[in-house]
């Protein structure tokens, strides 16, 4: 089924196009915090499965040992609405004898696109064929990597449901660390390397790149990049406030928002019973006798479903129910929000983070189609005071797109996203060189 634009009445903006048509596009350039860029490449070939990871068949397995000695393993599948879904994601830095499970499942939860003039809004995943718009990638679009064939459910062309559209590759990240040693001629330095997993999905005039970046230091960054082309049908700026694109002042591109949701199902050390904590710090003026202001950090245990708002000096972490690192500290992953413009126009986009108790029918943050009658359709309504035994993390990252002349043509990729960063998953930097492995805690210099 092709994108259904009937909901926009006489002004369809989700233009239906043949899959062979190349799309072009525009978007503001603003790299989301946490995204690291790099240009280096290396081969990412499927390796022989370790027995521990062999819970999906070879065709659906992604496994890569990165140059720093870290191995990421996961399974993938392709959902008829969510598109790429990564499952059973584990991280094994050098020095760990077995993979450490991080996530049970990681996927998009919605791309919500409301237009500023109030004429229309889109739920791209659940309503406009995001998954069916999977684009085939050429080898040059997956440099140094492997492109897997994806069978698209409910493909628009049922005779040809297979699309070579899933790229796995590696990319250089630049310095992982640098440290001057005790002697002037000894420098400890390493270049980081990331595993990248991505697809491109066309929705109307836009193409969305869904990128998952698994770093050799344990960080995972998920980004959606909007590219393709500004919507041809959206140069009317019905509110008179769009941005003029092209000569003079006639063709005003209508401004709009892209509100992207991710759904993460953590399973640290293999258990979904993760604990949620929120940290807040307050800074107070110097007390008499102090030379500087004081900062106090406090933790709030989040035991019930949460509606969270990012702000300075606030962060959250998911804590393992069972696992500790070699220092005896509970393993956890910190949630690091990216740059966002929170859209206040809908109840579900009013907050940055939602943590809900697992319910198997709750798959999409808005316009959720899977639950029965009477069950609310959006994530904000699922936060209802239930105790968290199996918390599901929903992150909302918004971008207000006021088009600019540079958005044509094609539209430069605009990224939005966030990261999860290991906190005490290993006892030291997972990339620590062996000569420094003894320098843990309040160590004494050796003479
Ligand atoms: Cu846009």
UniProtKB/TrEMBL annotation:
Needed co-factor(s): Cu cation
Biased composition (Polar residues): 1-10
Segments for region (Disordered): 1-20
UniProt cofactor note: Contains 1 topaquinone per subunit.
Modification(s) after translation: Topaquinone (TPQ) is generated by copper-dependent autoxidation of a specific tyrosyl residue.
Membrane-spanning intervals of the chain: none
Stretches assigned to the Copper amine oxidase catalytic domain: 60-430
Enzyme nomenclature, EC number: 1.4.3.-
Key word Transmembrane present: no
Segment forming the signal sequence: 1-32
Keywords: Copper, Metal-binding, Oxidoreductase, Signal, TPQ
Superkingdom of source: Bacteria
UniProt family annotation: Belongs to the copper/topaquinone oxidase family.
Protein name: Amine oxidase
Organism: Streptomyces nigra
Source organism phylogeny: Bacteria, Bacillati, Actinomycetota, Actinomycetes, Kitasatosporales
């Amino acid at each position: 089924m092709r994108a259904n634009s009937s909901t926009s009445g006489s002004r369809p903006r989700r233009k239906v196009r043949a899959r062979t048509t190349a799309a072009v596009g525009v978007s503001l350039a603003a790299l989301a915090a946490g995204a690291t860029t790099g240009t280096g490449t290396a081969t990412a070939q499927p390796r022989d499965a370790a027995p521990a990871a062999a819970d999906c068949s070879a065709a659906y397995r992604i496994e890569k040992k990165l140059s720093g000695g870290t191995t990421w393993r996961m399974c993938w599948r392709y959902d008829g609405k969510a598109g790429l879904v990564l499952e059973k994601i584990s991280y094994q830095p050098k020095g760990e004898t077995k993979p450490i499970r991080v996530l049970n499942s990681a996927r998009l939860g919605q791309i919500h696109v409301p237009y500023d003039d109030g004429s229309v809004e889109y739920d791209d995943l659940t309503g406009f064929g995001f998954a069916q718009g999977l684009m085939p990638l050429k080898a040059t679009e997956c440099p140094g990597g492997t492109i897997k064939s994806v069978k698209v459910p409910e493909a628009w062309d049922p005779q040809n449901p297979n699309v070579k559209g899933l790229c796995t590759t590696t990319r250089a990240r630049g310095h992982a660390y640098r440290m001057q040693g005790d002697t002037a001629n000894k420098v400890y330095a390493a270049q980081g390397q990331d595993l990248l997993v991505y697809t491109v999905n066309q929705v109307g005039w836009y193409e969305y790149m869904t990128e998952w970046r698994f770093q050799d230091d344990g960080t995972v960054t998920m980004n959606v990049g909007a590219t393709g082309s500004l919507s041809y049908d959206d140069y009317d700026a019905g509110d008179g406030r769009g941005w003029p694109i092209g000569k003079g002042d006639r063709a005003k591109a209508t401004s709009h928002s892209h509100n992207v949701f991710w759904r993460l199902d953590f399973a640290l050390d293999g258990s979904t019973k993760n604990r949620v904590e929120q940290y807040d710090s307050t800074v107070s003026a110097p007390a008499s006798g102090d030379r500087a202001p004081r900062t106090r950090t406090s933790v709030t245990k989040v035991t019930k479903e949460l509606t969270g708002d990012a702000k300075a000096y606030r962060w959250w972490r998911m804590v393992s129910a069972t696992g500790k690192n070699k220092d005896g500290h509970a393993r956890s992953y910190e949630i690091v929000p990216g740059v966002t413009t929170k859209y206040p126009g809908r109840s579900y986009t009013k907050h940055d983070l939602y943590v809900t108790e697992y319910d198997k029918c709750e798959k999409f943050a808005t316009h959720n189609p899977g639950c029965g009658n009477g069950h609310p359709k959006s994530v904000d309504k699922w936060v209802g005071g239930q105790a968290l035994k199996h918390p599901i993390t929903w992150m909302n990252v918004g971008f207000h797109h006021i088009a600019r002349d540079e958005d044509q043509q094609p539209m430069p990729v605009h990224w939005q996203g966030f990261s999860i960063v290991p906190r005490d998953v290993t006892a030291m930097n997972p990339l620590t060189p062996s000569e420094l492995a003894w320098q843990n805690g309040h160590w004494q210099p050796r003479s």
